[in-house]
Design brief:
Blueprint (H helix, E strand, L loop, with lengths): L14 H17 L1 H5 L8 H36 L3 H10 L6 H9 L1 H22 L8 H12 L1 H8 L1
Length: 162
Amino acid sequence: MRFNKHPRFEFTDTHQKRAAIRRRHKREVNKYPLLAFIGEIAPVDEDKEMAARRRKHADDDVHDRRRHAADWRKARRLLREHAEKDGILWYWQTYSLTANPVMLLDLIHNWPQMKASRLAAEQRMNAFRRERGDSELPACKSLTVFLDMLALSPANESHEDA
């Protein structure tokens, strides 16, 4: 199955971040001059602030990676349980959706609408061919394969019997 790993970014301590810390402190002092005068606004320690930001970045990275992995597990579980998993998996592998779990979950959730829109596109294409009298126009390969996948899916066999 196509998927992208969750990217990792290193925290970088830059002079722009340190300048932003100094600007924020200066804004607070200018906004509340009396608090600064009586010592309620403590002078900023840039090193402590950057260390706190580094810890927060590491914690956020762990949280994001866990959420990303949980979303992949959920998407794969829903795909295994889905009646039309072959068609969904074929669509996922064939079309250029971003290979992240949110897109796969969205595809699984919206599969009936996706299938209907693909069938409607094929019907419009066939109507266009009949209108022009061009039965020789090449069929869209991906749509043809898509329709073949739908015909082979177990969910469609139950509809044909009715």
